[in-house]
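hey so u asked for the seq, here:
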Amino acid sequence: QVQLVESGGGLVQPGGSLRLSCAASGSIFIRIYAMAWYRQAPGKQRELVASITSGGDTNYADSVEGRFTISRDIAKNTVYLQIDSLKPEDTAVYYCNTYDPRLRIDYWGQGTQVTVSS
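ran it, structure tokens below
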């Protein structure tokens, strides 16, 4: 059974940092799958914030470039999102995502809440 389990969210003051984790299990091996982080703020559409290819290339949304860093630990089959210089507008539920092109299935984690407030 495929699972993506996020952790690491919480309440943080503006300017603070968090590191989100996404542990993949089942048939998802991050060394061969592209992985991504999305977020969804209240009343807004889910948006892509960062992605990493199977080859390790990364891409970021303009709104987070320079503050967010996506990385992975292949041995742990885990993807991370380091979030620095947090702003109130970063408040959202953050989701881990991958797509299996063989089965044509999108996989999502349950999400982890990030709240930026003083």
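Residues 2 and 28 are 7 Å apart (CA to CA). DSSP finds no helices and eleven strands in the chain.
lmk if thats what u needed
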